[in-house]
Design brief:
Largest sheet: 3 strands, antiparallel
Order of helices and strands: HHHHHHEEEHHHHHHHHHH
Strand order of the largest sheet: 1-2-3
Strand content: under 5%
Number of strands: 3
Distance between the termini: 16 Å
Shape: globular
Mean pLDDT: 83
Low-confidence stretches: none
Helix content: 55-70%
């Protein structure tokens, strides 16, 4: 429970920043779809309001329990996540060729979004009671590597390449954080670079096409390159001040695909311009810096690894989503935290922020 002493340490600025971006997301989702004839799309902003509410409940749950509680049950949570991902592969709902969702009543849940949290909990648990930083060798990484590969394997076959990439990057953050022996770190990264080209043989045809069109979208302007071209047109047309709220032509005329999810940043940039983008990026930067600050001031090793993993996950999503919309990264369907439409993503991110706030509030009690 939260005592008066703990409540006094609650970081209202971090919470209000995340809540403010999510409210802005509701506005952007409405703007992206208000002119569409389909009722389904016109009411998505209302659904997003409900998701914000559910996200706040998830954040409250993360705050009420001492974060050490999650350390005790980290492996159990991880095991249940693996079972849930296996269930998705058997009985999941197929949408756009991917089997990623399960229905609980009338609500669809993307389990892979929650899988990232369970992996972070499991890795933080493993490394909290291990050797001190700087004493880890390659053999000490076998168990965490197997956990990461098992989880990533269940996600990549859905297929969900974007989330799989995030899972891999989260693992790499932990590898860097434990300060491996230099020679071991060099061997590990060298092996990774040598094996990286083999990933090509496991990619599907449409994923290979996206990579081909990354550097030159005009190779297939009406196919694989269409998303990237229209996104960059939308962002560039926003200019310095933007076209104004609800006045984005790329969005309103439906040139921009997936505009309420993957390309919500493009909608925002077109309507608010450079000024709006600068402010939004400042908010994201504040969240990232505050998350890192919480990690490095945590009261114990579990709190450090947990916070570092959580803020790294949010950071990677921000970087890759925005990079995707401006043509720096291939299109992988990665949502923008707190801004994109999607209940699973929003709930997961609010839960992560709740855990970060939890670590900060209790850092002097351990």
């Amino acid at each position: 429970m939260i005592s008066q002493r703990l409540a006094a340490n609650f970081n209202w600025l971090l919470f209000l920043t995340c809540l403010g971006i999510s409210i802005l997301g509701v506005v952007m989702i409405y703007s992206a779809n208000h002119g569409r004839p389909e009722v389904f799309f016109r009411v998505l902003y209302i659904k997003q309001i409900y998701w914000v509410g559910y996200g706040l409940v998830a954040m409250l749950f993360a705050l009420l329990l001492d974060y050490r509680w999650f350390s005790r049950y980290a492996y159990l949570i991880f095991a249940l996540t693996l079972l849930s991902l296996a269930y998705v592969l058997i009985n999941g709902v197929i949408v756009s060729g991917s089997r990623r969702w399960i229905y609980i009543g009338s609500v669809s849940i993307q389990v892979s979004e929650f899988a990232k949290i369970s992996l972070i909990l499991a890795l933080a648990k493993y490394f909290e009671s291990g050797k001190i930083s700087g004493q880890y060798k390659l053999k000490d990484l076998i168990i965490p590597a197997l956990m990461t590969l098992t989880l990533g394997g269940l996600v990549v076959v859905q297929p969900d390449l974007g989330t799989t990439m995030m899972i891999f990057f989260i693992f790499m953050v932990f590898i860097v954080a434990i300060e491996l022996e230099k020679i071991t770190l060099i061997k590990l990264f060298s092996s990774g670079l040598l094996l990286a080209p083999t990933i090509w043989f496991f990619l599907m045809d449409y994923q290979k096409t996206r990579l081909f069109t990354l550097l030159n979208p005009e190779l297939d302007p009406l196919g694989a390159g269409y998303h990237s071209i229209q996104s960059k047109i939308a962002i560039g047309s926003g200019g310095f001040w933007g076209k104004g709220l609800f006045a984005g032509t790329q969005s309103r005329l439906n040139f921009l695909p997936e505009k309420h999810t993957d390309f919500i940043f493009s909608v925002f940039a077109e309507e608010t311009g450079f000024v709006g983008v600068a402010i939004l990026l400042s908010f994201f930067l504040f969240i990232i810096m505050k998350g890192l600050n919480i990690a490095f001031r945590a009261g114990d090793r579990f709190g450090f690894f947990l916070s570092l993993g959580l803020i790294s996950s949010i950071t990677f999503y921000i970087i890759f989503n925005i990079g995707m919309t401006v043509g720096l990264f291939p299109i992988t369907g990665i949502p923008l935290p707190f801004l994109s439409y999607g209940g699973s993503s929003l709930i997961t991110n609010f839960f992560a922020i709740g855990l970060l706030l939890n670590v900060e509030m209790r850092r002097l009690l351990h």
